[in-house]
Amino acid sequence: MKILLAYDGGEPARKALDLTADFAKKFDASVAVVSVVPVHPGRVPIDPWDDTPVHASQLAEAKRLLLDKGIEAALIERAGDPAHTIEQIAQDGGYDMVVVGSRHLGAVSRVLQGSVSEHIATHSPATVVIAR
Predict the structure, then answer these.
(1) Cβ(86)–Cβ(98) under 8 Å?
(2) Which of 6, 35, 74, 110 could cysteine-pair with 55, CB 3.0–4.6 Å?
(3) Sheet strand arrangement including 73-80
(4) Could you read off the pLDDT of 25-59 as tens digits, one per residue?
(5) Residue 34 confidence (pLDDT)
(6) Would you say 107 and 39 are in contact if contact means Cβ atoms under 8 Å apart?
(7) The total number of structural domains that make up the chain
(8) Full domain range(s) for residue 113
(9) Tell me, what CATH number does 57's domain have?
(10) Interaxial angle between packed helices 52-68 and 11-27, expressed in degrees from 0 to 180 and rounded to the nearest 10
């Protein structure tokens, strides 16, 4: 079994990491962690407050936290639309499960920002688990 964990360093992502570790141990699964640097069309390609070093740090944190739980994880850093990029990685990598955290966006925020977890849950070919 292959598990893809979407990780951004927030509290929901940490819950998703804990859940991923539990699944990995139970199912003897391999784990990869993805962090996506968001790119917004029509703007400077990468938001200055959300850049590559931030995501590299988040991936290093996830790797360390998983190692503390006895799990070796591959790291994937990409740039693009987070929801579509994670969906594509899951499909191309043949992942059986994608684990993401839910940020509990309100209705207005979901319309303005979109919900990454909602998009992945409705578009990914893999089983999607949303940690709350």
Answers:
(1) yes
(2) 35
(3) 73-80, 30-38, 2-6, 97-101, 127-131
(4) 999 999 999 998 887 665 555 554 457 788 889 99
(5) 96
(6) no
(7) 1
(8) 2-131
(9) 3.40.50.620
(10) 40
